[in-house]
Structures are given as structure tokens and as C-alpha cells.
Specification:
Layout: H1 4-7, H2 18-50, H3 54-91, H4 98-116, H5 122-142
Length: 159
């Protein structure tokens, strides 16, 4: 049997309970946050060394840091969220393909945010899509798994 903490981040057919899902999500957010902080520190050091003036280094930091941090953090966030979400869906007896619908809704929410800058009416669409995404995540935390073994594996160990 695989270690439950390791099983949460390794893709494959398995199940995790609600508490493991919450702990896995919190752990991934802490690790991703630490990665984002490390990225910002490295960028600050690189820009301080490369830039001829402090003003130029600050300008480079303001422009590049959000973009580079997003490029490093977003793939990790998507991966861990998908693996944890699929395993949680498996615990409820559902297919992991439902995560595709979640990420489509999430991506549409982000996209409408950019459109809402120039067309404020899209702000309500973005708000609605964000609420649907939040409710989907809440469902993964609140809804119980199947009480017996299902096609995705045995009942996950409880604390």
C-alpha cells in the first residue's frame, strides 16, 4: 500500500478522503507559495546584479516578476489541483473527467476577467463562473465518499 501523503500527489487510480484532500491542498499551496517566494527572490537578485541602476532594477521587477511567477506557479497549481481533485472524485465514485469541466469553468472565469476590464458587463459573468468554481471545490470538501470499495479502489484509510 502506498503512503497516503505520497498517493495524494502521484497520478493514478486511487481515492483520498475529505481530510486528506484538505491537507493535500494546504500542503500544495504552502509549497507553491514557497516556490513563488523563491522565484521572486532569485529575480530580485538577478535584476540587482544585471541592472545598472536601482530604478531600472525596480522597473524590471515590477514588469517581470508577476509574469515569471505565474509561469512557475500556475503549472504546479494546476497539476496538484487536478491530481487531488481526481482522487477525491474517485472517492465519491465519480470519474475524474469532471475536473475538465472545473478547469474549463475556471479558465473561462479568468478569461472573462480580462475582458471585463474593457467591457464591465462581463464582470457579472466572471463572478458567476468564479462562484461555480468555488462551489465545485466546496463540494469536494463537503460531500462524503462511497462507504464501500468502488471501481477506483478500496476505502481510503481514515485518521
Amino acid at each position: 500500500m502506498m503512503n497516503p501523503a505520497k498517493a495524494a500527489f502521484v497520478p493514478g487510480p486511487a481515492r483520498i478522503g475529505r481530510l486528506d484532500y484538505v491537507f493535500g491542498w494546504l500542503t500544495s499551496m504552502l509549497l507553491i507559495g514557497a516556490g513563488a517566494l523563491a522565484t521572486m527572490i532569485v529575480l530580485a537578485l538577478v535584476f540587482a546584479v544585471v541592472s545598472p541602476t536601482m530604478e531600472r532594477a525596480e522597473a524590471l521587477m515590477r514588469g517581470a516578476t508577476p509574469f515569471v511567477t505565474l509561469l512557475t506557479v500556475m503549472p504546479a497549481s494546476i497539476y496538484t489541483g487536478a491530481v487531488l481533485g481526481v482522487k477525491r472524485l474517485h472517492d465519491m465514485g465519480r470519474t475524474g473527467r469532471w475536473m475538465i469541466a472545473y478547469y474549463a469553468c475556471y479558465a473561462a472565469c479568468l478569461g472573462t476577467n480580462f475582458v471585463a476590464i474593457s467591457m464591465p458587463a462581463f464582470g457579472l459573468v466572471s463572478l458567476a463562473l468564479g462562484a461555480i468554481s468555488a462551489l465545485a471545490l466546496l463540494a469536494l470538501v463537503v460531500l462524503p465518499g462511497t462507504k464501500d470499495a468502488n471501481r477506483y479502489g478500496p476505502v481510503p484509510p481514515r485518521f
